[in-house]
Write a structure and sequence with these properties.
3-stranded antiparallel sheet, Molybdopterin biosynthesis moea protein, domain 2, alpha+beta
Length: 70
């Protein structure tokens, strides 16, 4: 029987939009809007995995450190 491994959010490289909204204490709709707005920006924190948006945790942290409002 295969053992399921759970990785804590703070150790993951990529987060789903739902996980990112939980981790960064933002609403899921707000996280979707930010990801859609910055998908092709110089910040490079959004990765498209097929049709699924993933957030690079550390890159998004850097983005938040540089901004004053979201």
């Amino acid at each position: 029987m295969a053992k399921e491994i759970t990785v804590p959010l703070w150790e993951k490289f990529l987060l789903t939009v739902k996980e990112a909204s939980i981790y960064f204490n933002l609403g899921e709709n707000k996280m979707h809007r930010i990801a859609n707005e910055y998908v092709d920006s110089e910040y490079k924190f959004v990765v498209l995995n097929g049709g699924r948006m993933m957030i690079k945790r550390k890159k998004f942290e850097e983005f938040l450190n540089q901004t004053t409002s979201i």
